[in-house]
Specification:
The structure is a single chain. By secondary structure, the protein is α/β, with parallel strands linked by helices. The chain has one domain: Rossmann fold, CATH 3.40.50. The chain is 35% helix and 18% strand. It is built from nine helices and 13 strands. Strands 3-2-1-4-5-7-11 form a seven-stranded parallel beta sheet, sandwiched between helices. It has a two-stranded parallel ribbon with strand order 6-13. The two termini are 36 Å apart.
Length: 289
Amino acid sequence: MNKLIVGCGYLGRLVAQRWLADGHNVSALTRSAQNASQFEAMGINPVEGDVTKPETLGELPKAETVLIAIGFDRSAAPTKHDVYVTGLHNVLKRCADWSHRLIYISSVSVYGQSNGEWIDESSPREPSSENGQICLEAEQLIHEFYPASAASKVRSANILRLAGIYGPQRLLSRIDALKAGQSLTGRPDSWLNLIHVSDAATTVVQCDKSNSYGEDFLVSDNHPVERRKYYQRLAELVGAPEPVFDPTKKGQRTQGRNKRCRNQKIREILGVHLAYPTYEAGLTQSVSP
């Protein structure tokens, strides 16, 4: 089968590897000639284009499954809204008529709960942060093009709301800050919800194989962890001093970031077996040489 990845970065490349191993033909959209060369070396068919420039999307290859996992490049000119909403709309106008299944990577930031309460897919989506509001607008756009009420094997979309994704090469900035003794933002007693990149990729692949047409899923590991415990363990693993927190530090984002996510639906409906069900196992693997 043909698969198309729009946003073939940290998560997308791992999904591509899984699909290639399963014998699928995988294409990926990229703005970078360097990425295009890397994709070719991996066996991925590169397609050069930019989601914020609809005139460059005319050559998108038709595929049974389209994965949209667009990341935000802070060094580029477009805003988050330009990329996640306007860019998404540009892609959907190209592929909604011929893709059988669209899988969209969203975020648990669409849930604005911030008092440590448990949430799942049925919880109200009332984001208080700018990022959450943009993600919710993107989700609404997905449902406009792929109405859940009309979902079928022929044409459907799944939204995967990911917790904080981590894994090898994704913790370098935090490790450097810990080793330097820099204070960390956020309350040490607030809850973190995490998902290892390998388990996130597994969820995408399982979702694509499933009969859960039009369903949305919250993607997190089995046990939320207090921020303090997470960074204490990371500091131990890398030989850094005891972490110090400064809740008043400029640049922190605390709204809607103190909740606990249930992952029951991905385990029971998609049959996802997490390789890293807790942060302890995932951190050890992520920082190992």
